[in-house]
């Protein structure tokens, strides 16, 4: 079946602009994660959604970052007033139930100029 | 602080060699541990998931073990092949939360 998909695959934006990154999880998966992978850095947890529960936002680096998940499926990560340090690959993962095996999408490479 | 460490950071071996990658974590109260591989410019591919109640999991030439008391997991790769060249990551979810903590990875190069 279809895996996790993310769009766009690449995004170049100017400093100060807002960007939206999209994640389509595997159909039927109730849990969804967002991560960030900066050049030469490990994966950094950003946010976690489980069903209709309140998301775990403990990893969001600043209030410029927000995410939502509509209808328990598609998720959008929004970065407002982008900064150069936001340049990274943003990865999304989903799992069938909470704390289960995670399946990753191909990522969105964000470059802030 | 909950941390995940992977040793070595990089490893180069000749084809056919058996090898072990190490992952250590600072808090034994884990829910599960997952091993991934990441190819350059790509997303992560799940290899094995070990629940906290399990001691090991096997898939093909891969075997992952878990020792919670010592805070360690190992990924054993048998008869390595050039196609195994990638970065291997371990990730831990601790009990009481949903945050996944990743190690920095081991970059493996298998020479033909």
Compact description:
Chain A is mostly beta strands and 113 residues long. In chain A, 0% of the residues lie in helices and 47% in strands. The mean pLDDT of chain A is 93.
Provide an overview of this structure:
In chain A, the strands form two sheets. In chain A, strands 2, 4, 5, 8, 9 and 10 form a six-stranded mixed sheet that branches. A four-stranded antiparallel sheet of chain A has the order 1-3-7-6, with no helix packed on it. Chain A has strands at 5-7, 10-13, 19-24, 31-37, 43-50, 65-69, 75-79, 88-95, 103-104, 108-112. Chain A has no helices and ten strands. Chain A is mainly β. Chain A starts with a strand and ends with a strand. The mean pLDDT of chain A is 93. Chain B is mostly beta strands. Chain B has no helices and eleven strands. Chain B is globular, with a radius of gyration of 13 Å. In chain B, 37% of the residues are buried. The mean pLDDT of chain B is 93. The interface between A and B is medium-sized, with 24 and 22 residues.
């Amino acid at each position: 079946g279809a895996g996790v998909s993310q769009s766009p695959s690449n995004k170049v934006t100017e400093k100060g602009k807002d960007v939206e990154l999209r994640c389509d999880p595997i159909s039927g998966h109730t849990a969804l994660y967002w991560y960030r992978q900066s050049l030469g850095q490990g994966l950094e947890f950003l946010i976690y959604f489980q069903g209709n529960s309140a998301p775990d936002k403990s990893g969001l680096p600043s209030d410029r970052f927000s995410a939502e998940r509509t209808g328990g499926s598609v998720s959008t990560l929004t970065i407002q007033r982008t900064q150069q340090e936001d340049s990274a690959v943003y990865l999304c993962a989903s799992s069938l139930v909470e704390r289960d095996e995670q399946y990753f999408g191909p990522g969105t490479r964000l470059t802030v100029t | 602080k909950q941390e995940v460490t992977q040793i070595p950071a990089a490893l180069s071996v000749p084809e056919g060699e058996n090898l072990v990658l190490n992952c250590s974590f600072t808090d034994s109260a884990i829910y599960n541990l997952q091993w991934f591989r990441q190819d350059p410019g790509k997303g992560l591919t799940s290899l094995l998931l070990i629940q906290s109640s399990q001691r090991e999991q096997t898939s093909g030439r891969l075997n992952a073990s878990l020792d919670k008391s010592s805070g360690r997991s190992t990924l054993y790769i048998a008869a390595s092949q050039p196609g195994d060249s990638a970065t291997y990551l371990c990730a831990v979810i601790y009990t009481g939360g949903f945050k996944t903590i990743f190690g920095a990875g081991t970059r493996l190069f298998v020479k033909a």
